[in-house]
Amino acid sequence: MSKLSDEQFQAYLKQIRELAEGPFDEMQKEIEVTNKFPQEFYDLAIKNDLYRFALPEKYGGFGLTEKQILMVQEEFSRGPGGMRMHLHHAADLDWRILDDFGSDELKAQYMDKFQDKTVYSNFALTEKTGGTGADVHTTAIKDGDYYVINGEKTLISHTDCSDFTYLIVSTDPTSDKDSRLSAFFVDVHTPGYEIVPMPHMMGCRGAGHAGLRFTNMRVHKKFLLGKEGMGLEIAMHSLAVSRAHIAVSNLGMAQRMLEMTIKRAKDRVTFGKPLIKRQAIQQTIADMGTEIHALRLMIYDFAEDYEAGRDIEMKAAMCKLHSINTVKTVSDAMLEIFGGIGYFEDCEYGPTERLYRDCRAMWLEEGPRTVQRLTAFRGLEKNGGVISYKDNGYRTV
């Protein structure tokens, strides 16, 4: 049960929306240039419980349901994309991997430190020299009580503010089996750990993207997550949940873009008539809203399955796939209806230009559409095309 009453939870959602569209939006103007979050951002995130709201109660969190966590994320996703990346991670991968796969010793030492950003992590899977998934070339070779790690990772978020890295490596590099991979919880101050700078991104500025290089980095066996050979399982399970969180990020952005578009269409008059009165505009707005409505229900259905402990990999991939299509449809329509004014910074209706850039990162986070389709296909093939839903109890249709 949540520690918050329904009334308190609704007030918290309002509080986070006002934060995202107020102070966060304002400070993003500087971040667009510096590509770095000011300390004020972290202070406000802590003050507004954005590092602890998703944590279980036993670690100092609110004890929210998965649906409630996703609802909070929809609200802060209305703000700047880089901050959304940071806070999305804080609500999910940041602590969940350690909670799911860490030893009792590691959890006792670190889990309650996530609530105020005393500990913050990043997740390192992607490499330049291969894809993701099982195609990992960074190696960890056993040497007594330690593993010696060598290799590189690329496109890693939050490298500038992390204390630990969830690192996926190959502990059996000669094998072609899925069990060749393992996962570690690595202190970023370990000798041999190096951050490699990368250029600024198109959008989502401030999220600390960089490469990582490991040179004879020695990591004690106590930092192994799960068991040796579980790396792919850990990565895929963690990404499945995160994909639904990516989907709700797209939902938050799309919802704000729809609201701004309707306001603009009411105000903009051409040939004596507001745009909102033209059937072509009405049909476009209807399409935007329909995509958003369908996405929100898909995400809530995912949350029901997650809470019930059911397999969520297929539906999480579907959520992310549909969310990319939704935010593409909505952002393109927004810009078309706004016209030239929407292409400029500091638009009076809101950050149309920035949202348009920020949402493009969602094509890539936790895998592009091609990967989501393959994951969804595997589930559909396994189930013979049958998709189950909650409807007066759990049933199969």
Written account of the structure:
The chain is of the alpha+beta class and 397 residues long. The protein is globular, with a radius of gyration of 22 Å. Helix 3 crosses helix 7 and helix 7 packs parallel to helix 9 (313-338). It has helices spanning 6-34, 39-47, 66-76, 81-90, 93-101, 104-110, 231-267, 279-307, 313-338, 352-358, 369-382; strands at residues 121-124, 139-143, 146-156, 164-170, 181-187, 193-197, 210-220, 224-225, 269-270, 273-274, 388-390, 394-396. The protein is built from 11 helices and 12 strands. The longest helix has 37 residues, at 231-267. The two termini are 30 Å apart.
Short summary of the structure?
It is built from eleven helices and twelve strands.
Number of strands: 12
User: Radius of gyration, rounded?
Assistant: 22 Å
In this structure, how is the largest beta sheet organized?
Answer: 4 strands, mixed
Please give the oligomerization state of what you see. Answer: single chain
Unreliable stretches, pLDDT < 50, 5 or more residues? none
Largest sheet strand order: 1-4-5-8
- What is the residue-averaged pLDDT? 92
**Tally of helical runs:** 11
Order of H and E elements: HHHHHHEEEEEEEEHEEHHHHEE
Q: From the helix content, strand content and strand pairing, which structural class follows?
A: alpha+beta
Content of β-strand: 15-25%
Roughly how much helix do the residues carry, as a percent range?
40-55%
Distance between the termini: 30 Å
How would the global form be characterised? globular
